[in-house]
Amino acid sequence: MKRIFLVFLLWLPLISHAEWKRVTYSDDGSVVAYFDPDRIKRNGTGDMSPVAWILVNYNKPQKDKTTGGKSYQSVLRKTMYDCKYEKTAYLQAVWYAQKFAHGDVIDSVESNDYAWDSIVPNSMGEDELRFICKQ
What's the pLDDT tens digit per position in 30-51? Predict the structure, then answer.
């Protein structure tokens, strides 16, 4: 519990000052992803692996094994994009009880040994990659 509270305190400035812009949404509109343009990081001009914070909102509460069956409506995640090879790697994620990363923190993870995942064609992930890589 202390770990979740500490993560919440550390991320509070990120959440409260973000100006979220819509990146993509599901075909039925039940899932919407946003990004904060001020929080895209690159290692220099021409860097093909930007890192961005993505906020995913769900219209209805979600439950899955990631959160131990606990209900959540948004996920704030730090994602690295490989623009050249069209892959993503998730670096951090925090699940929240309410939309726009509000309410109780349900769970959080941080990965130091991330794995690259291939982009699924015609998916929200592909939309994210194309959008972030253009920024």
Answer: 999 999 989 899 876 667 899 9
CATH class of 2-134: mainly beta
Global model pTM greater than 0.90? no
The residue assigned the tokens 């599901």 is 26
Long-range contacts of 26-34 (CB under 8 A, 24+ apart): 26/124, 29/59, 30/58, 30/59, 30/60, 31/56, 31/57, 31/58, 31/59, 31/124, 32/56, 32/57, 33/57, 33/124, 33/127, 33/128
CA distance 127 to 135: 13
| Confidence label for 10 from pLDDT (cuts 50, 70 and 90) | very low
Contact 124/113 with Cβ under 8 angstroms?
no
Structure tokens at 107: 């769970």
User: Hey, what are 61's tokens?
Assistant: 């509460």
